[in-house]
Specification:
Blueprint (H helix, E strand, L loop, with lengths): L3 E4 L6 H8 L6 H20 L4 E4 L5 H9 L2 H4 L16 E5 L2 H10 L10 H7 L9 E5 L4 H14 L1
Parallel strand pairs: 1-2, 3-4
Helix pairs in contact: 2-3
Family: Belongs to the gluconokinase GntK/GntV family.
Protein name: Gluconokinase
Keywords: ATP-binding, Kinase, Nucleotide-binding, Transferase
Length: 158
């Protein structure tokens, strides 16, 4: 697509990486500043009319709201008021698959701070996207080319 790509893991503060490396799941308090920083990156790209892809484990609905609206999403479930920064238009891609497939992929990953042992905590935290969120669900049981094609098709459809 020629879009900028960001891996959210690159933006975790050292404290978060240390906790995960020690096998300690992150709390909402750990994640919110990280998600706000990611929102700021997306807002900057949007302001410069640059499309971007962010790989991010936005596990909860609240986390996805923070990516869309920033810190204001935490304080209020109310829509933006006139004159405020409008919410970003984001298509969330929920990569869905059984824990054993994802665990197998994590086992092959080298040099990453999150150990495979934290996968269960992520499944326990997961709130799959639902209406009215703007999302698609793509099965991880498909081949990589099929996954990419499905995501690209959804993006191009708008």
């Amino acid at each position: 697509l020629g879009w900028k790509f960001y891996d959210a893991d690159d933006y975790h503060p050292p404290e978060n990486k240390k906790k995960m490396a020690e096998g300690i799941p992150l709390s909402d308090e750990d994640r919110i500043p990280w998600l706000c920083a990611l929102h700021d990156i997306l807002r900057r790209e949007d302001a410069s009319r640059q499309d971007a892809i962010l790989a991010c484990s936005a596990l909860k609905k609240m986390y996805r709201r923070v990516l869309i609206s920033g810190a204001s999403a935490i304080e209020s479930d109310q829509p933006e008021q006139p004159g405020e920064n409008p919410a970003l238009k984001i298509l969330f891609v929920h990569l869905d698959g059984p824990m054993d497939i994802i665990a197998g992929r994590l086992e092959k990953r080298r040099g990453h701070f999150m150990p495979p042992e934290l996968l269960k905590s992520q499944f326990d935290t997961l709130e799959p996207p639902s209406a009215p969120e703007n999302f698609i669900t793509v099965s991880l049981e498909k081949s990589l080319p099929e996954i990419v094609l499905e995501i690209e098709s959804a993006i191009l459809r708008g």
